[in-house]
Design a protein that fits this description.
- Helices cover 27% and strands 24% of the residues.
- It has 248 residues and is α/β, with parallel strands linked by helices.
- It has one domain: Spore Coat Polysaccharide Biosynthesis Protein SpsA, Chain A.
- The termini are far apart.
């Protein structure tokens, strides 16, 4: 275990999951199963394996269902951050900062689905983290190789790991995976209430303190019921099920 590995994490789980309707009408998106296991449990399992002792989960949409589901979990120990109104990514994390401590911490979207490469992705992030240079470190994936992703990418990546946003008419090679390490200082002088984490990323880019690391495994964009079905099929192949023979 990397001694620098964060011992705390934030798991973002408050959203409505509108694109996953009608499945998300009955349950919050983090509780929708992928390959037989709720997405949030997959994320928390990985965090526990990375050495995370405490995880803060923010709640809003169908929060009682998430609270009940996670009540018996001990690895990592779960704490909750209630949101009476949706605070978006930046506001949600800022609201939970008192529970996250003074050191760098992992942040994971609760619906991230990925397979590790040669080393666990969270372990690679912790190994690359440099507290003296970074306020945020994002796990990025090749947009062209991201399963189910059809966008124009998010970032370019310099040889030293610094990231730059895609220009308006540009196609960028990397997409954000939903996994990152943040330091609390990123939130100094942050806005009040609801705001996107993008605002703080942009400030970190200006200060040359936003970095990225390329994921060396697989990453799945699970945004709709159709993509969920395709992801489950692809995971079956990746985890051992034989692929069908090509039609000739």
């Amino acid at each position: 275990m990397n001694p620098r590995s964060p011992s705390r994490a934030m798991v973002l789980a408050a959203g409505y999951g509108k694109r996953m309707r009608p499945l998300s009408d009955e349950r919050p998106k983090p509780l929708i199963e992928v390959h037989g296991r709720p997405m949030i449990d997959r994320v928390l399992d990985r965090l526990a394996a990375a050495g995370v002792k405490e995880a803060v989960v923010n709640l809003h949409y169908k929060g009682d269902m998430l609270r009940t589901h996670l009540a018996g979990r001990s690895r990592p120990e779960i704490f909750f951050s209630e949101e009476t109104e949706i605070l978006d990514t930046g506001g949600g994390i800022a609201n939970a900062l008192p529970q996250l401590g003074a050191e760098a911490f992992y942040v994971a979207n609760s619906d991230v689905v990925w397979l590790d490469g040669l080393r666990p992705a969270l372990e690679r992030l912790a190994s690359f983290w440099d507290d003296s240079r970074m306020d945020a470190l994002l796990l990025l994936h090749s947009a062209a190789l991201a399963f189910g992703y059809e966008g124009q990418g998010d970032f370019t990546l310099a040889p030293d790991g610094q990231v730059r946003r895609r220009n308006e008419r540009e196609v960028a090679p990397f997409v954000f995976t939903g996994l990152q390490i943040l330091h609390p200082r990123l939130f100094e002088n942050a806005p009040e209430g609801a705001f996107s984490l993008n605002r703080l990323w942009d400030r970190a880019i200006e200060n040359q303190r936003l970095y990225g690391l390329r994921h060396d495994g697989l990453w799945f964009h699970v945004g709709t019921p159709e993509l969920l079905a395709e992801t489950e099929q692809e995971l079956s192949y990746e985890l051992g099920k034989p692929r069908p023979e090509p039609v000739v």
